[in-house]
Specification:
By secondary structure, the chain is α+β, with helices and mostly antiparallel strands. It has one helix and two strands, in the order ββα. The protein has a two-stranded antiparallel ribbon with strand order 1-2. A hairpin with a 5-residue loop joins β1 and β2. The longest helix is centred in the C-terminal third of the chain and has 28 residues. It is elongated.
């Protein structure tokens, strides 16, 4: 752990810094999965809204 002391004697503790890494662009298969999940989620939300309107 990294600790510093200022001129008045107060301790400051800092968390260790993690390595930076960059995300990779999703593969074609992952993109297809995201599209299908989005379509299923949209269908579910639409059905829930229509059900709410139908009940009320």
């Amino acid at each position: 752990m990294y600790t510093t002391v200022d001129e008045t004697g107060v301790l400051n503790n800092y968390a260790p810094e993690t390595e930076i890494y960059y995300a990779d662009f999703p593969s074609v298969e992952q993109q297809r999965n995201y599209i299908s999940q989005g379509a299923i989620a949209s269908l579910l939300v639409s059905l829930l809204i229509l059900t709410a309107f139908g009940i009320s």
